[in-house]
Each structure stands twice: as structure tokens, then as C-alpha cells.
Design brief:
The chain is an alpha+beta fold and 612 residues long. 17% of the residues lie in helices and 38% in strands. The protein has a 16-stranded antiparallel β-sheet that branches. Strands 20-21-22-23-24-25-26-27 form an 8-stranded parallel β-barrel, surrounded by 4 helices. Strands 32-31-19-28-29-30-33 form a 7-stranded mixed β-sheet, with helices on one face. The longest helix is centred in the middle third of the chain and has 15 residues.
Length: 612
């Protein structure tokens, strides 16, 4: 990699290179104590086997590894290390891990843990990730803890709850004639469909969610868990891919119109936006999404600020209105309508959602008190009779999938996504794009052709439905559930954003919001970055490109390797096709663009390129 690391990632810190382990046809990447991209004959068998320790807010500890020994032989490999987790209250958990792989297709990951003092956690143990590409909807065999074996299938549409519980082993077909059995010992495991959170995996994890959490691991009481992967069969391995071959772009049929692009505006961001009106005009969003939350003290002043911006910048306006639901719904929502009128704020639409629905209700938990959504929407319709009404979840698809709103009362459905709920490494974030078509397909299966909006969806987490708060990230690290993320300021975010829009384009969205204008989710640089404050981040160019495509007919655009390059295309009234390409990798990637009447180009790491 020769590009400036800050330009790519918004930080000078780069991730540690994985250590490639191999034994015959079996290979795996060793990263920070865990295994990623476990392959056999070049086919991905498991996305990860990881030993995870989480805190009471579902934040993930980053254990310090010591005594690390890696041995690579001709037909076998082994890894051993010690590690420990230190909680904020000073309690400690230590563990010893060993990993062994052999050319006969066997892989064993064993961990023995010992709390040095009482240790509070929401989860301590293994997570196993099965990939979704090529596996969604496919047959599997599940062995339960009671010995019962069931032939079933992985979900095609996203399952809101756990598809399988009380698991001892899962077996799936790697390719014709080759199977992989993943056996889990030491505790009771269950699977959740992580596509709910835009993770590109099915996750099998330790300790059922129906059991209480957080829970305490007693001091001095040892725990042992073992994951055993056995790959068997003589099926023919696929032909090796020629890595130097350019990624080829192919164009297909014309589809639905590309969505309007919105930017979310918070009350505290309005003055900066007003001071940068020419830049906002250059960006060109079709929608301003005003976030209004009375639980954070928003009132008339916030609405007046929104009104000043709406007057100064011509765009459609939607109020993202959190409903407190603490008393009479008509009184609350008509009160908001009165404040909107006092402020002189002209709205095109309003989206409403109860404040309590921003918190997740995991399996086994009691649903919190909340008025029926039918009543919330009816009150909103009475208060705002002359504009479009939307609803859904201001959190993630997970919550919408689990609490399916009465869409017949709404003019549009909305939800968000966030790629760092469970993991925040570069690879996991880019892989999350694979899950987006499953999210839109599942939403369409639930709500049909109802107008559909997504966002604000950003790399960083703007709220945490699964804990008390998002994780502060003043140090600009790569951490899950963080309130800011350094990559938002880099070329990485631009590539992710174009990739996101490409993945959801076939769903025919009405509106897509992937940034704010200013602040930690914004397209403009903030103070503390080694560039001029208020200057455009690389993300600016990506959002501007999407704004220019809005309203064009979507042209199906596929690439020969969508793990490397994604393409988004639209057709102008003249018949010309305009496209944006995104390199999702940290490597230079040659691309064949002969579909556009051009030859080849080389895309630098995380580059975005406009064609046409």
C-alpha cells in the first residue's frame, strides 16, 4: 500500500496484517487471537471462529495476547497464546488458547478461561460465523444438545429470532461432495441471523439470550470451550482464480428509479450548515432530514433553526420525530405540530417512532411499555394531516423485523443500519455490504411495495439500542458501537457509501440517507483532523455523485468479483449510462470497463471512479 494512510482511513493507524495458516487444502487467517476466512480448497467454509468477551453494554474487550507461539509445518499448523481482559472495575479474566489444523481437514480451537476475580459479562465464549454468500437458504443438518439431529435450511429471508437453538453441531455442504461439520462443546450454543444488523453472516454463539445478562463468572471457577471443524469428502476443488485478471463490469436491464439522497441535520449542526450554504448547494441533496428528539431537550429553538436552513436551502424536508409517549398522544403530537407552525418550518413529510422503540428487545426479554403503534400513527396523522407520514424504526432493521409496524397507516417505511454493531475491523465493515440485499428483500417481503426509505446509515453508531450508550471514541480507534469512526473521514467511507448505494439500488428506495452535513457523520472535516476544518471529506464526492444520480433509471450493474469492486449505474434521458465504481479493498484493482465502450483502468485502494 503506497497511499497515505490518513487519506484512506482517517487515521495513521493501520490494522495488523493477518497471519496465513495452511495445512493442505485447509487455510485460515489468524488475527488478534482469532481465526478469519477459514477456507478449504479456496472455498470459504466459515467466516470466523472467535473467542469473544463482552461487557454489560455489549462492548467487546480487546484482550492483550502474551506467550504467542505460531508453528507452521508442511501439513499442519498450531497456535497457542495467553490473554486477559481487564474490566473498568479492576476485575480480570485470563484464558489460554490453542489452535490446531491439519491437512486431513480438521481444525480445533480450544480455550480454557479462569476469572481471577468475579467478572461481569454479557457473553464469554465462542462465536462462529457462517458466510451468507452461497449459503443463504441452503440445506444444513443441526445436531441438538439432546442428540436429536434435524435436517433443515438456513433462512433465506432474515429471521427476526434465532433460527436454531440448543446446538451441538452444524453440518453444511462446502461444495458438491465436501461437507463441513462444526462441533461446539463446553456450553449451550444457539444461532442468530446476523443479517439483521447488516453483518454478512449467521452467528452461532454461546449462552442462550433467554438467560439473564449481564451475569457474573465466579472467581476461580474455570471454563472450557472447544470448537472442532471437520471437513470431509472428495469433491473437486473449484479452479483457481487468476488474481491478475481484471474485475469485469457488466451492464444489464433498466430497473426502478434511483432514490433521492438525504442528509440528516441535527439542531446543533444548523449554524455550521448555514455558514456553508454554497457547499450544501454544491452537494445537492434532494432531502434534508431534520432530527427532532424532545428527550434531548429539542423544542421550539430547534425547529426555528431547521426553518432557517429550510428557507435558505431549497430541498424537500422530513422531520424525524421521536415520540415520548409519556401521556396523551394527541396532546404530544399536536403540540409538536403547533411548534412547527410557530417556527415557520415547511415540511414535506414527518416520520414518527416511539422513543422506547430505539431500544432493542432481545429474545427472552419483556417488551417495554409502549402505546399501540396504530394509536401513535393515528395521532400523528391528525396532527399533520396535510403531509406524508412515515414510520418504522429509527434504530436498525433488527428492531423493525422484530416489531413489524402497521404499514397500512403509513405513506412510507423507514429504518437504519450500522456496520459496527458486532465488529469494527475494515474487512467486516466492507463485508456488511453483502447483507444489504437480504435486508431490502426481507423488508419488501414484509411490507410489499410500500415506499421505503433507509437511513441515516453511517459507519459510526449514532445510538446504541443494545446498551446504555454508544462507545466514546476520542482516540479515533476501530471499535464496535462507537459514536464516531476515523474511517468516516477517509476514502474508506467514500467506497463504502458507493458500495452501499449499489447494493440497495435494486430495491427501488424512495430515499437513502448515508451522512449528515457536518459533525461526526458529516461530509465536512471537523476540528482535530489534519486538514482544514470545513473542507470536504472524500465522502463529499461520493454523496455528491449519488445526488447527481438521484431520479435516474437504475441500470443493473454487476462485477465479476463483488468482494473487490461494486458498481452503481443510472441512465440519463439521452440514453447515456453514468456509473460509479468503488474499490472495496486496500489493494490496487484492475477493472475492465469495456461495457462502457472504454478499456481498462486501475483503481487504487478504496477509490471511487465516475464513468460517463
Amino acid at each position: 500500500m503506497t497511499a497515505d494512510t490518513f487519506l484512506l482511513y482517517g487515521t495513521r493507524v493501520v490494522e495488523a496484517e493477518p497471519v496465513r495458516l495452511s495445512a493442505g487444502a485447509l487455510s485460515a487467517d489468524f488475527v488478534n487471537g482469532n481465526l478469519r476466512t477459514i477456507r478449504h480448497g479456496g472455498t470459504e467454509v466459515l467466516r470466523a471462529i472467535a473467542y469473544i468477551v463482552r461487557d454489560r453494554d455489549w462492548g467487546t474487550y480487546a484482550p492483550n495476547l502474551t506467550d504467542l507461539v505460531i508453528e507452521q509445518g508442511a501439513d499442519a499448523f498450531s497456535v497457542s497464546y495467553s490473554a486477559g481482559c481487564l474490566a473498568p472495575d479492576g476485575s480480570q479474566l485470563g484464558f489460554r488458547a490453542t489452535i490446531k489444523g491439519s491437512a486431513d481437514g480438521c481444525l480445533v480451537f480450544d480455550v480454557r478461561a479462569l476469572p481471577e476475580s468475579d467478572f461481569e459479562t454479557n457473553r464469554c465464549g465462542f462465536c462462529i460465523l457462517h458466510p451468507i454468500a452461497g449459503l443463504a437458504g441452503s440445506p444444513v443438518t443441526v445436531e441438538h444438545t439432546d442428540g436429536n439431529v434435524v435436517a433443515t435450511k438456513l433462512p433465506e429471508l432474515i429471521d427476526p429470532w434465532q433460527p436454531f437453538k440448543d446446538i451441538r453441531a452444524i453440518t453444511h455442504q462446502v461444495r458438491p461432495g465436501v461437507t463441513a461439520e462444526c462441533r461446539m462443546d463446553g456450553d449451550t450454543f444457539e444461532m442468530e441471523d446476523q443479517r439483521n444488523w447488516s453483518d454478512a453472516s449467521y452467528k452461532t454463539y454461546v449462552r442462550p439470550l433467554a438467560l439473564p445478562w449481564p451475569y457474573v463468572l465466579p472467581a476461580g471457577q474455570p471454563l472450557r470451550q472447544t470448537i472442532s471443524l471437520r471437513i470431509a469428502g472428495e469433491g473437486k476443488a473449484p479452479a483457481a482464480t487468476v488474481t491478475s485478471e481484471p474485475v469485469r463490469v457488466e451492464l444489464g436491464e433498466t430497473g426502478p428509479r434511483l432514490p433521492d439522497i438525504g442528509v440528516v441535520i441535527y439542531p446543533e449542526d444548523v449554524e455550521t450548515a448555514l455558514a456553508n450554504l454554497s457547499t450544501l448547494t454544491t452537494l445537492g441533496p434532494q432531502q434534508l432530514l431534520f432530527h427532532y428528539d424532545p428527550t434531548r431537550g429539542h423544542g421550539l429553538d430547534a425547529l426555528c433553526a431547521f426553518a432557517r436552513l429550510a428557507t435558505a436551502h431549497a430541498a424537500a424536508t422530513t422531520l424525524e420525530c421521536v415520540v415520548v409517549c409519556a401521556g396523551d398522544l394527541d396532546a404530544e403530537l399536536s403540540g409538536v405540530a403547533d411548534l412547527v407552525r410557530q417556527a415557520g418550518l415547511k415540511l414535506s413529510a414527518i416520520a414518527v417512532s416511539p422513543s422506547v422503540d430505539r431500544q432493542s428487545t432481545p429474545p427472552g426479554s419483556a417488551w417495554p411499555d409502549c402505546p399501540p403503534l396504530e394509536d401513535v400513527y393515528a395521532a400523528a396523522r391528525r396532527a399533520f394531516p396535510d403531509i406524508r407520514l412515515g414510520g418504522g424504526m429509527f434504530s436498525y432493521f433488527t428492531e423493525l423485523n422484530r416489531k413489524r409496524v402497521p404499514a397500512d397507516q403509513l405513506d412510507f417505511i423507514t429504518h437504519c443500519t450500522c456496520p459496527i454493531v458486532h465488529a469494527a475491523d475494515d474487512l467486516s465493515i466492507m463485508q456488511s455490504l453483502e447483507a444489504l440485499p437480504f435486508i431490502t428483500q426481507s423488508a419488501r417481503a414484509i411490507f410489499g411495495a410500500r415506499p421505503y426509505r433507509i437511513g441515516p446509515s453511517t459507519i459510526a453508531m449514532r445510538q446504541n439500542p443494545y446498551g446504555g450508550a454508544t462507545k466514546p471514541n476520542a482516540g479515533g480507534q476501530r471499535i464496535a458501537m462507537a459514536d464516531s469512526d476515523p474511517r468516516h473521514a477517509g476514502q474508506f467511507a467514500a467506497a463504502w457509501t458507493i458500495g452501499y448505494a449499489a447494493r440497495v439500488a435494486p430495491a427501488g428506495l424512495e430515499m437513502l440517507t448515508l451522512s449528515s452535513f457536518t459533525g461526526p457523520f458529516g461530509v465536512l472535516a471537523s476540528s482535530g483532523e489534519p486538514v482544514v476544518e470545513g473542507s470536504p471529506r472524500p465522502l463529499f464526492r461520493a454523496i455528491k455523485g449519488l445526488c447527481e444520480l438521484a431520479g435516474l433509471a437504475h441500470v443493473a450493474a454487476r462485477t465479476s468479483d463483488e468482494t473487490k469492486v461494486l458498481a452503481l449505474a443510472g441512465r440519463l434521458a439521452s440514453g447515456e449510462t453514468v456509473a460509479w465504481l468503488a474499490n472495496l479493498t486496500a489493494d490496487d484493482v484492475p477493472v475492465d470497463i469495456s461495457a462502457f465502450g472504454r478499456g481498462h483502468l486501475v483503481m487504487t485502494p478504496y477509490a471511487i471512479v465516475r464513468i460517463g
